[in-house]
Amino acid sequence: MAMAWIWTGMVVLSLIFGILSGNLDEVANAAMAGAQSAIDLSVSMAGMLCLWSGIMEIMNVCGLSRGLARAFRPLLRRLLPDASRDEETLAAVSANVSANLLGLGNAATPLGIRAARRMARRCEGVASDELCLLVVLNTASIQLLPTTIASVRAAAGCRTPFDILPAVWFSSVLSVTVGLLTARLLSRWGRGRP
User: What distance in Å separates the CA atoms of residue 85 and residue 78, rounded to the nearest whole number?
Assistant: First the structure.
């Protein structure tokens, strides 16, 4: 809701300043050019997202994503001991982490929502530490293949959209580490432990 007000305010201010400065034609032309750029980006990204969604489906059919999710289960059992008692919740969390690892945020979101809903059943209206930890893992996920960013870079004309891999790996590992440590610290602080 707040974003709607912010965007509306920016449009209104642009129109007011365009009228006051006598540049209303330039404002209208910029709006049309921006709309065209948004359509071009959306269409070019759709192709790349379809490609990676197809690859993910192939990985699902051949069992590779299930294997990847199984590989994460020992770590997730340590991070989320209560949630791992429910096999269906653990499966959703594992699949969510795997999809995020492959850079498939669009595919990871429904899995994360399913895991969060199952975990929230035990929370009684207040988010548990484990549910907060899931949000941290989902938000600051480690990505081996940043497919969405690569799609945007390719759509913008980049010839080497995956040349950002080392920076993505470093920053995503760092963000997950800081997120997990902060969640652990806040959890202990909330319980009155230093």
Answer: 11
